[in-house]
Amino acid sequence: MSLLEIEDLTVTYGTDDVRVHAVNGVSFDVEKGVNYGLAGESGSGKSTAAEAILGLLPGNGRVDGGSVRFKGQDLLELSAEERRDVLWEEIAYIPQSAMDALDPVMTCGAQIRQAIQKHRNVTDAKARERIRELFDIVGLDPDRINEYPHEFSGGMRQRVTIAMALALEPDLIVADEPTTGLDVVVQDKIIDQILDIQERIDSSLLLITHEIGVIAETCDELSILYGGTVMEQGSVDNVLVNPTHPYTMGLKNSFPEVEQLSDDPVAIPGSPPSLGAPPTGCVFADRCPFETEECTAETPPTVDLPNRNHRSACHHTEQAAQMRRDAADPETWGVDPSDEDASATSDEEILRVDDLQKWYTTSQPLLDQLRGEDPPKVKAVDGVSFSLHHSEILGVAGESGCGKSTLGETVAMLEEPTGGDIVFDGKSVEEYKRGGMKEFRRNAQIIFQDPFDSLNPRQTVRQLVTEPLRIHGIAEDRQEEKAAETLERVGLTPAEEFLDDYPHELSGGQRQRVAIARALVLDPDFLVCDEPASMLDVSLKVNLLNLLRDLADESDIGIIYISHDLASLSQVSDRLAIMYLGRIVELGETARIVDDPKHPYTSALLSAAPEKDPTSDRERVLLDGEPPDPVDIPNGCAFAPRCPEASAECRETEPTLDEAGDDAHSAACYFPVDGTSHDTGESGSLSSTTADD
Amino acid sequence: MSTESADSIRTRARSTVDWLVSHVQFVTTDTPALAGFTILVGFVFLGLFGPVIAPYDPIRASVQNAQGTILRLHPPTLRAPFGTTAYGKDVFSQFLAGARPTLIVGLVGGVATGGIGFLVGLVSGYFGGWVDETLMRLTDLTFSLPFMPMALLLLTFIQPNIWIITLIIAAFLWKMPARVIRSEVLSASERTFVKSARASGAGHLRTMFVHVAPNVLPIAFLYTAYGVAWSIAAQASLAFLGFGDPTTTSWGRMLRQVFASGSIRVAWWWVIPPALGIAAVTTSVFLVGRAYEEVINPEIDDQ
């Protein structure tokens, strides 16, 4: 008997007009001591399935059929009280956003104690001991149990929720996107922690995530969901290495990886199905390149593949090998492979940034103010210099809080720089500020992170896209035509269908395209993209990256692409800039940085990116500690306190960007990492100050 | 070209109408709101035509019986369906005529309250800094002055008429919407599309009125509706205390007269119509307002 047996689970949501069939007959088993992954894009029903298991469905959700057996007991038949006993005692839950999952007015320790004492009759002292133990297990300092959630960073708060989940040694932990929203370095630490805990206590884990890489690294078995249906399930090694379902192939091939620069990424065309009616036929059929008549006519049964732990719901599993070969080719998915020659950047400079500074003043105590002391400054951007050419994409990477978004907004003149200079199109911004700001705004555009918030909800797409034209008084008699043209250029065809829609009627990917159309309608020379893909599903992300690449190549636009996702950055950028605490620590051609990172921080970032191939065994470079407080940056190299290579010299004087490397690739480090491996252990002798390739 | 622009004007007009309709449609789905809306429609009708359909002149004419004697403090009869006052005037006619000043003060006072509050809140929240500081201290000042004593003091020196009273009410009530709208504007201005508008070169006026204002407008509507209710209540209170316009009949003034005549415990037919009128109208405004509050967000509306 398995620990958790889900059989034919069906969940629907009631809305005003229709019932949405979110989960349609999902079955899977989680064995004792096994890490099980539920993967899928947004709307695939993975979170709904988890909520149904936990009995946490929202009021309009209803389980219409199937059973959820935990140790042979049907959880769906329990009363609310019986369920409360099972929850946490035997099934613990790690919710998605660690930031909001903890009560801000209770200390972390008290919250865990509450969970313990609710179920166990133990003394405060005993509970306290257990909490210290738990903090130790998840890698937090046991002396900090009396601190409040706001005193911990995001990654540490996520650890507290994990500690809380472990408190009663449950047999099953359900984790809903435990690493989403965390930086790649922190994510890597959490994954490492989960694996470590797995070894120490013998509980099972049900991991729900859209990141195949995370599953590949942590799970033993998985199910891939699409449209509320299982597409493929089985052992991670079989499913991800030799997928037999076209959807798995598409998903896997579109997941960007740092090391595959040469491969063209694949994007699954179309958008997820609307589930207004129970699906007939294969739900993936209308996006599938291998679709036949049989697929739309008949729902494919989930069939066992012989001799291995692997099941697939596809009519064409016998042709899997051929499909796998075809699926690796982007043309199968309707993506034109980019023309390598076209991506050559021109020599003409569009933007030059010199020693740019953006310091924010923070509040200080009244006494210090009276004493006339300088208020403390947050150095969000501190002496950044780079240049950008026409049709070049410069990727800016770094952890959250490193100042990359501030850099983007300062360069786009949404924030006033506190020092340094920006030269745009041969003219300093000081000149633009003396009356030419409109000209600057016309030629420099910015695209923001959140497509759900960057469009005015009370304007139609028509108004949104023509507004910049109206502001600048361009093409007055043919604004609409121009708007339609731009919409089609960003892939919203036919444009007429979208012109009268309001933003909330569009999907996330469509909204982000409208935001891009709004920026492009003025034919700018320069575009700042601030994490434009971070809220999009993986196949939409690839679409967006391809679109930006095409824009840079065909329209001669210079693009600054800001992201924490090094994998997608390395696919789209010509050059990369790695930022740490307001400074660029490494700058150079993408291929050279990825193959041969010189700064220890870069190599740590690169090694932290998860890989989708479960058989590859990457080495983890776990950085110690957290980035220091930006108000109180240590002397010398800002990275020194976390750097495995740091010496006394690093802590005293700050290395400049030309410390290591050459014109095409430079790093601000006295002891650059040597060689092509990511292993920082053996490099860093004093003699390698000027590394040669 | 001209047909094209006519077309675009037509589509724009149609979309505005659609938008308005979509904002009023909520009334039909919510029973209390529908009841409130019906009462308000009746009230507006009374305000417009009340004096015309009144059987007697509310102040000059006295109700007489067949013998020609004036009926004083008479319970409802066929000649005076709501009874008569201590002076022999028809309560029904006074009730009908009294709706007009109530409507005027309510409507003008409410719109002025909402309007001033909206502008102050918008400017204050959008610009921040010293503009915000100045306007908000001014708001604090009006908060610190008690409404009733101040209004009574002012009306002691000024000959009250309906417009002066409306003005005083608006001057004291704008602070509520101003505060609420300022905080809404503060959060709306933080949203990315405002930044995006600035990035595409939009000026302050455009950003403020095209991007920020429409997103706080529903709240302004709501507070305008509440302003109507507050104004009606304030005007009735002032009139009841004897500081109303002496030349017109209003519901508040009717209550004042029944109180002054000393027959408030006896003449239920004189008390109930104005009291019920005020209560029904203010309650209706709040009922409609509450239902509107639920549909204020188009994103929620569509789910």
UniProtKB/TrEMBL annotation, chain A:
Task: Give one Pfam family, short name only.
Answer: ABC_tran
Which region ranges are annotated with the description Disordered?
321-347, 608-628, 648-693
Q: Which GO terms describe its molecular function?
A: ATP binding; ATP hydrolysis activity
Organism of origin: Halarchaeum rubridurum
Per UniProt, subcellular location reads as: Cell membrane
Keywords associated with the record: ATP-binding, Cell membrane, Membrane, Nucleotide-binding, Transport
PANTHER family reported for this sequence: DIPEPTIDE TRANSPORT ATP-BINDING PROTEIN DPPD, OLIGOPEPTIDE TRANSPORT ATP-BINDING PROTEIN APPD
SUPFAM superfamilies reported in the protein's UniProt record: P-loop containing nucleoside triphosphate hydrolases
Q: Does the keyword RNA-binding apply?
A: no
Q: What's an example GO BP annotation here?
A: peptide transport
Compositional bias of kind Acidic residues: 337-347
**Where do Basic and acidic residues bias regions lie?**
610-623
Q: Where is the ABC transporter domain?
A: 4-252, 351-606
Q: Where is the composition biased (Polar residues)?
A: 682-693
| Protein name, UniProt field | Oligopeptide ABC transporter ATP-binding protein OppF
Q: Which GO cellular component term is one of those annotated?
A: plasma membrane
| Membrane topology term | Peripheral membrane protein
For the keyword ATP-binding, the answer is yes
UniProtKB/TrEMBL annotation, chain B:
* Cell location: Cell membrane
The UniProt entry lists membrane topology as: Multi-pass membrane protein
Keywords (A to Z) from UniProt:
Cell membrane, Membrane, Transmembrane, Transmembrane helix, Transport
- For this UniProt entry, which segments traverse the membrane? 33-54, 103-127, 147-174, 216-243, 267-288
An example Gene Ontology biological process: transmembrane transport
Report the PANTHER family cross-referenced here: D,D-DIPEPTIDE TRANSPORT SYSTEM PERMEASE PROTEIN DDPC-RELATED, OLIGOPEPTIDE TRANSPORT SYSTEM PERMEASE PROTEIN APPC
Question: What family does this chain come from, according to its entry?
Answer: Belongs to the binding-protein-dependent transport system permease family.
Q: What is this protein called?
A: Peptide ABC transporter permease
Organism equals: Halarchaeum rubridurum
